[in-house]
Structure formats: C-alpha cells, structure tokens
Amino acid sequence: MSGVAFFCASFAGNATPPSLSFPVDCRLGETCFIQQYVDHDPSIAARDYTCGPQSYDGHQGTDFRLSDLAALTRNVAVLATADGIVQATRDGVLDQGIAAMPKGQDCGNGVVIDHGDGWQSQYCHLAQGSIAVTHGQNVQAGARLGVIGLSGRTEFPHLHFTLRHNGTVIDPFNQSAEGHCGLDTAQLWHPALPAPTADVMAAGFSDALPDYDAIRAGRAHLPMATRSASALVVWGFAHSGQIGDRMEFEITGPNGALLHENSVTLERAQAQFFRASGRRAPNGGWGAGRYIGEIRLIREGELISIRQTEIELR
Fold first, then answer.
1. CA distance 58 to 78
2. What is the pTM of this model?
3. What is 230-247 written as a DSSP string?
4. Are 276 and 235 a contacting pair, CB within 8 Å?
5. How many angstroms separate the CA atoms of 207 and 280, rounded?
6. Which residues share a beta bridge with 305?
7. At a CB cut-off of 8 Å and minimum separation 6, what does 266 contact?
8. Please, are residues 95 and 75 in contact by the beta-carbon 8 Å criterion?
9. Between the N and C ends of the chain, which has fewer C-beta atoms within 10 Å?
10. Cβ–Cβ < 8 Å for 260, 271
11. Minimal CA–CA distance to 66: which of 98, 37, 109, 27?
12. Residue 102's CB: how many other CB atoms inside 10 A?
C-alpha cells in the first residue's frame, strides 16, 4: 500500500506488455478477494478503472486480500505473474503491519521482477522469512515468490501488486490515459478478471453480538454450542460496501424450518465491515442439530455475494 500521490498513466511506445497470470494461489471470490484497485483520479478523490469507488487517493496497485488474520496460517502463495528475472527482494520485516513498519519500507517484505522492455512487477506485504527467490534468478510465470503476510504499511493480510513500464504505474485492468476511467481497453490479466464488486468474505455464528476485532482475527465463529445458548446470532464480514447495499440474514433449523430473517442497509460506504442479526432462545431452549446461516449482499436489487455457515447445537 502506498500513500504517494498518483494517477494511472498509459504506456508509451511499441513495447508489448506482458500477459499476466493470477498472482495468488487462491480461489477468487472464495478464499481471496480484490478489495482495492489502481487510482485513476488525478484529484484528491479516488476512482477505480470502472470509475467506481474501490480505490483510495494515490493507490498504485491492486490489493488481493485474504478474509482475516487467521487465513495467514494457510501460507497462501504469491506467484510470479510473468516470466522474468528477479531484480530485487526484501525480507526480515516483521508481520505486524503498519505498527512495526520500518521507515521507508511501506512494501514490507517483497519482490521485484524485471520482464524486459521496461516492464516490472512488484509484490508487497509478503510474510517474514517466506521469500523463495533470490536476486538475479530467472523465474517463470506461476513460480512461488513467497506467501502473503502482514509486513509493511498494511492493516489487513493481502498482496499489493504493482505493474510498471519504464517507472510508470500501469493498471493491468485498464491501460487508460492519464486521469481517465471507464474506457474499454483490454486487460493484461489472462484470463480476464471480473469487475470490481463487494464480497462477503466470511460468515459465522455466535451466541451474542461478536466483537469486531475477533471477526478480523478470524476467531469469532462458534462451530458448536449447547442447546442452552441464550441466543443464535449469524454475522457476515464483507469488503467494499457502498451506501444502499443491503445485507440479508437467514437462519434455518435442523428440520429446514426458517427460524429468523432480517436485513440491514448500509448508511455509509465502508472498505470492510460486519453486520449481524439473530434471535433469543425459545422457551425450553434450542432443538439439537445443525443450524444453517446464510448471508446475502444485495446491491441495487441484484445479489452480488452469498455465503453460508453452520453451527451444531448439542
């Protein structure tokens, strides 16, 4: 992540840009998510390549994030997007985010690859001790560079990926002219990646309103409880919410009966957020068995993300 003022520029000359493969060993929309894109707005405002809000002022790359801190234990690999030669590496930065970032090391642990003809790719916020390549090494697309960590200027686990041509940042989703967005240009990603959207990254059950820090840490879900639980609360953790988005909740019981439904509308845009809904225990307590929770994120009447969770009551 970078706070340097910036807006996207198109590349000049006849140099053919590299064809980029996906840079993370994950399933997009399931185990990883794209939260923020290159800023295409030259003012203090921010716009992604579709002219949407999924960026922030001066953002120079694409953020491929994991759902929560617990996902770091999966050691999700960061992969080279194209053939090239490793130009630079850094390791040894603590996985403690911005709180422990050494001065001038916003990228944290990272790798830079030279693809020739002035093209370079940069991979930031990798885990301490995970860098798997060395300076001068030849790598092919898909080669393991390290794993996603929490080093450098970051507050959530993600890979910050930046593409440059002759030192100028190029948005691989849309190589549009300076200060423009919404133009129909071909992606450099092959296959092409979907347009910006919000995602329900995680969902879970609890027996009370969960703590936000516990959700971000990945330890809020209660997979099992007793029939004497005072309440059943289902929650969803999402990114890139916009004003007017609606999060819908359902809880169904062991016999398939609908026990609870509710919806909450976002009153402000939020880069990441959670909402929860539930009901108190009935007289005599809950019936034994498996309870299913479903979270749906609705935007302008269209379903854009859905996630299910479950809890066993005994």
1. 24
2. 0.93
3. SEEEEEEEEEEE-TT-EE
4. yes
5. 9
6. 297
7. 241, 242, 243, 244, 245, 246, 247, 273
8. no
9. C
10. no
11. 27
12. 12
Residue ranges covered by each domain of the chain: 33-170, 199-313
Cis peptide before 191 (omega within 30 of 0): yes
Q: Compute, in degrees rounded to 10, the torsion defined by CA atoms 20, 22, 23, 26.
A: 180
| C-alpha to C-alpha distance for 76 and 243, rounded to whole angstroms | 32
- C-alpha 84/C-alpha 105 separation (Å) is 24
Q: Of 293, 297, 300, 269, which Cα lies nearest the Cα of 279?
A: 293
**Contacts (Cβ under 8 Å, ≥6 apart) of 207:** 222, 225, 229, 230, 231, 232, 233
CATH superfamily of 33-170: Glucose Permease (Domain IIA) (2.70.70.10)
Per the CB < 8 A criterion, the answer to whether 291 and 311 are in contact is yes
Residue 104 CB partners (closer than 8 Å, separation 6+)? none
* Residue written as token pair 């516990």: 214
pLDDT in tens, 217-264: 999 999 999 999 999 999 999 999 999 999 999 999 999 999 999 999
The single-letter code of the amino acid at 256 is: G
pLDDT band at 147 (very low <50, low <70, confident <90, very high): very high
| Architecture (CATH level 2) of domain 199-313 | Sandwich (2.60)
